[in-house]
Amino acid sequence: METIVYNQKGEKVGTFDLPEYIFNVSSGADLVHQAVRTQRANARESIAHTKDRSEVRGGGRKPWRQKGTGRARHGSRRSPLWSGGGVTFGPRSERDYSLKINKKQKQKALFAVLTSKVQGGKFVMMDTLSIPEPKTKAIIGVLHAMAKVIPTMETKKTLIITPSANKNIMLSARNIQNASVIAASSLNVYDLLAHANVMMMKDSIAVMQQTYTRTVKGAARNVSGEKAEVPVRATTKKKKARKAAKKGAKKTIKKSIKKRIK
């Protein structure tokens, strides 16, 4: 899949072959929804927290005697029935909202969203983006130049993907409401969907291939998209020693059990 490469002025400077296993992936909306739901849930923090009657300060003494006052019997001023008392079944900060998604599913969802951006004409590739010093005007000029390619580049949200974290680009874009900057190694499904347009640097492709194309078993892909050979780690001496120690311990336990039986 071939795409046109532009410079900062919006001029064509060449073409680039996009890897098909990243930018030509078809996936259902269910998988993308699962990836977004998992990401949002894992970012959620359990902040709300209430104290029960045993955690609230005070309330150790019985308010009044059991009988003879005419009032209802009570054993503590920190009972949930009292104002200032503990809370029954209130929210606790120990709650865990995290969800799990398989690595391959997460990877496929990411590639599917990138594919939809390319096919929908909301993707543009740049050769480089060099900003010598942080200036908001510089990013505004780039977005204005790229509006020749994608008309909504200035009016709708644009995600700028850089090969690595660039401080000048991030500082230049942080005051622009419709622009966000993210490193290729931190790319995720939610940020892609939250932005209408995607502007990617050419060198970000190599970073994506190294970051996102690792399977569960550890197989990687090279720049051409083919599976690259990954050296298998040899078992270390420490691991062998641990295994031998475990085997020896099991043998001694078996021998001691046999002696006791005899």
UniProtKB/TrEMBL annotation:
An example Gene Ontology CC term for this record: ribosome
GO molecular function, one term: rRNA binding
Coiled coil: none
Compositional bias (Basic residues): 59-77, 235-262
Record's compositionally biased regions (Basic and acidic residues): 42-58
GO terms of biological process kind: translation
Region ranges (Disordered): 42-87, 224-262
Pfam families reported in the protein's UniProt record: Ribosomal_L4
UniProt keyword terms in alphabetical order: Ribonucleoprotein, Ribosomal protein, RNA-binding, rRNA-binding
Function noted in UniProt: One of the primary rRNA binding proteins, this protein initially binds near the 5'-end of the 23S rRNA. It is important during the early stages of 50S assembly. It makes multiple contacts with different domains of the 23S rRNA in the assembled 50S subunit and ribosome.
The family this protein is said to belong to: Belongs to the universal ribosomal protein uL4 family.
Oligomeric and partner information: Part of the 50S ribosomal subunit.
Entries under HAMAP family matching the protein: Ribosomal_uL4_B (MF_01328_B)
Protein name: Large ribosomal subunit protein uL4
Top-level taxonomy: Bacteria, Candidatus Azamiibacteriota
